[in-house]
Amino acid sequence: MSNEPPTDESQSQPFFKSPKDWSRIKIRVLDKYLQPFCYKLGSTYHDVFLVDGFAGAGRYETGQDGSPLVGAKWALRMRDEGRPFHLRCINVEADELIHRQLARNLKPYADSGLVKTYKGRFEDHLRGILAEVGDSPTLFFIDPFGVEHIDQDSLAPLRLRTAKTELLLRLDTPYILRMLGQDKALRSDSESVRRAAQTILDKVSSIFGADKSAWSEELQDRWQRQAATAGGTQKAKHAAILGMYEESLKRAFAYVI
Ligand SMILES: C[S@@+](CC[C@H](N)C(=O)[O-])C[C@H]1O[C@@H](n2cnc3c(N)ncnc32)[C@H](O)[C@@H]1O
């Protein structure tokens, strides 16, 4: 799934005005996935966790539920159904203003003790969250803006977990496609422009979990070949990015769908 990201944190507010199509799909996938995930694992475990690492405001201005409300509603529904397990939701939001909106939107659910909200960066809370969820099955919903936190190093703590761990992650392929468009900049007369382009490509390399931290011709060839094989269209380029990201996840995680 993909989006057109705001360029910085201060522009993040309009994101919650109205969900785009990809956003609706993402929410629907989470909504549909949570029930079987919980029912299956809840037959063995007392607690099942949803960690929404990049939670957002909880609700769009159109009234549509954001991912934290989807989780909170399932948590209460399962409790009210008298299930023998609890779905527990942990939400993390870095932006102070958005966190305040999130806390407000989740207030009706907070008294249940099943829904928590942390202010701050996911990467800073992660160690504490891992301790909190312990050996309980946990679904991590990773939905940042842009491409931060989806590289293989950032995902390593989740990969290294021995307890049941699932990851639902949104990959912003248009963003990565733009990052890949550095051909002209790499040939620039200006060293600083060349260096900036290389830094961007190195970042893409880390997303793909390449062995070398630096963007290589081999990587460049591979994605161009994959895109060409698939027809060379824009859609094929997106598919090639997705394919390479899936390959890198498959090297790290047991199942990737
Ligand atoms: C794409 S939005 C999340 C939308 C939400 N998952 C939904 O579907 O309703 C990404 C959110 O992550 C927050 N964010 C950005 N960097 C973060 C970080 N390092 N840790 C936690 N939250 C972060 C942003 O402020 C933004 O609200």
The CATH class of the largest domain turns out to be Alpha Beta
Helical content, roughly? 40-55%
Total helical elements = 10
Find the structural class using helix and strand composition.
Answer: alpha/beta
Provide an overview of this structure:
Strands 3-2-1-4-5 form a five-stranded parallel sheet, sandwiched between helices. The two termini are 13 Å apart. Helix 5 (152-159) links the parallel strand 4 (138-142) and strand 5 (165-169). It contains ten helices and five strands; from the N terminus they run αβαβαβαβαβααααα. It folds into two domains: 9-170, Vaccinia Virus protein VP39 (Rossmann fold), CATH 3.40.50.150; 174-248, no CATH class. The chain has helices at 21-41, 67-80, 96-110, 122-133, 152-159, 173-180, 183-186, 191-207, 217-229, 234-252; strands at 47-52, 86-93, 115-119, 138-142, 165-169. Helix 9 crosses helix 10 (234-252). It is an alpha/beta fold and 257 residues long. S-adenosylmethionine (SAM) binds next to helix 1, strand 2 and helix 4.
Topology of this structure?
Elements: H1 21-41, E1 47-52, H2 67-80, E2 86-93, H3 96-110, E3 115-119, H4 122-133, E4 138-142, H5 152-159, E5 165-169, H6 173-180, H7 183-186, H8 191-207, H9 217-229, H10 234-252
Parallel strand pairs: 1-2, 1-4, 2-3, 4-5
Helix pairs in contact: 1-2, 2-3, 6-10, 9-10
Bound molecules: S-adenosylmethionine.
Quick synopsis:
With 257 residues, the protein is of the alpha/beta class.
